[in-house]
Amino acid sequence: MNPSSPEILPDTETGHARAAEILRAGGLVAFPTETVYGLGADASDDRAVARIYEAKGRPSFNPLIVHFADLETLKQHVHWTPEAELLAQTYWPGPLTLVLRKQADSPISPLVSAGLDTIAVRLPAHNSARAVLRAFGRGVAAPSANRSGQISPTQADHVAASLGNRVDAILDGGACEVGVESTIVGLLDKPVLLRPGGITEEDLAKTLGRHLAVRHKAEAISAPGQLMSHYAPDALVRLNATEWEPGELRLGFGDVDCDLNLSETEDLVEAAANLFDYLHRLDARGGGTIAVSPIPHEGLGIAINDRLSRAAAPRD
Ligand code: TXA
Ligand code: MG
C-alpha cells in the first residue's frame, strides 16, 4: 500500500466496499463526515493507528475519536450511562462526541486514547461515513484529515493537498456541511464540555437538565498531553538508558537485550503501536523503575519521546 498518490474512491457501494477493504488491511482512508474529513484507520489495529499519527506529523499523541455505524457496536466498547443515553437519543447520529470510560476488554488500541482508560466515541450522520463504517463493521479512529497545524479539510481536494500520498485512499463525498469539528462532552464524573462545536452548550444543558462544566479551550488544546488524566505508569521512568541497572524493567528499542522491545528493527511505527501497551504491561509487573532505550528524535519518534518525557517527569 501507500501508492505514489492516493486512490480516489467514488461515493458508491463499490467505493465504500473498497474503503472497508483498505481499512481491514491496516491502511488509511480519508472519508467525509458532516463536520470535516476524517483520516480513518482500524481503531483496533495498533500499527494502523500509529500510522495516523505518522501521517499527520503530530508531535504528540493527542487522543483520537472512534467512529461507529451503530449504537449497539459502540456500546460494546464503553461503560454506557443514562446521560450518554439521553445525549445519544437526542443528537446521534450527528456532530457530538462523548468521552466515556472504556470497557476493560475492548479491543480498541491503547494508542487511540494515548493510554487513558477512556475513549471518545461518535456516531456520525454523514451518509458516506455511515456507509463506510457499516461496510467495515468495527470502530474507525479518525482525527481531521490534515497535517498537524494545518486547517481542517472539508473537501476531498483539501485532504489530497494536505496529506498527499500519506493517505492510501480518499473517499470523495463532496463538501462537509458543518465545517467545524464535533462538540465533545466528557461524561466521566459530571458532564464537561471539552470542545465547543455545532451543538451548543445551551442545547446540551437543556437535554441533560443541568449545566455543563466547561474546560477552557486553551487548556484542552494546547496541552492535551499534560492533562492530569493522562496515563502515567506507577513505576518511575528512566529515559535514554544505554545500559540497565539491576532490577529495572527494561523497555528496549533496536538490537538490545530487554524485557519488552518496542521495535527490534527500529521501526518507529511499530514502536508507537506498542508504546502504551508495553508501558502498561511492564507497569503491571510491579517494580521500581522502567528504563527505556533512546528513541531517535525524528518523525514519530518525536511523539514517542514527548509521551515518554511526560511519563518520566517528576511527580508530586
Ligand atoms: O468532527 C470531528 O470530531 C472530527 C471528525 C473527523 O469526526 N474529528 C476530530 O478529531 O476532530 P480530532 O482528533 O481532531 O480531535 C480529537 C479530540 C482530541 O484533541 C481530544 O481533545 C479529544 O478529542 N479526545 C479524544 N479522546 C479523548 C479522551 N479519551 N479524553 C478526553 N478527550 C479526548
Ligand atoms: Mg484536528
Automatic annotation (TrEMBL):
Annotated binding of ATP, by residue: 58, 62, 118, 144, 152, 195, 231
Broad class of enzyme this protein falls into: transferase
E.C. no: 2.7.7.87
A GO CC term attached to the entry: cytoplasm
Catalytic reaction equation(s): L-threonine + hydrogencarbonate + ATP = L-threonylcarbamoyladenylate + diphosphate + H2O
Every YrdC-like domain range: 13-199
Subcellular location: Cytoplasm
Keyword Cell wall biogenesis/degradation tagged: no
Residues that hold L-threonine according to the record: 35, 67, 122, 142, 182
GO biological process: regulation of translational fidelity; tRNA processing
InterPro entries assigned to the protein according to its UniProt record, in alphabetical order: DHBP_synth_RibB-like_a/b_dom (IPR017945), Sua5-like_dom (IPR006070), Sua5/YwlC_C (IPR038385), Sua5_C (IPR005145), T(6)A37_SUA5 (IPR010923), TC-AMP_synthase_SUA5 (IPR050156)
Pfam family, one: Sua5_C
Molecular function per GO: ATP binding; double-stranded RNA binding; L-threonylcarbamoyladenylate synthase; tRNA binding
UniProt keyword terms in alphabetical order: ATP-binding, Cytoplasm, Nucleotide-binding, Nucleotidyltransferase, Transferase, tRNA processing
Job of this protein: Required for the formation of a threonylcarbamoyl group on adenosine at position 37 (t(6)A37) in tRNAs that read codons beginning with adenine.
Protein family per UniProt: Belongs to the SUA5 family.
Xref: PANTHER family: SUA5 (PTHR17490), THREONYLCARBAMOYL-AMP SYNTHASE (PTHR17490:SF16)
Protein name per Swiss-Prot or TrEMBL: Threonylcarbamoyl-AMP synthase
Protein species of origin: Marivita geojedonensis
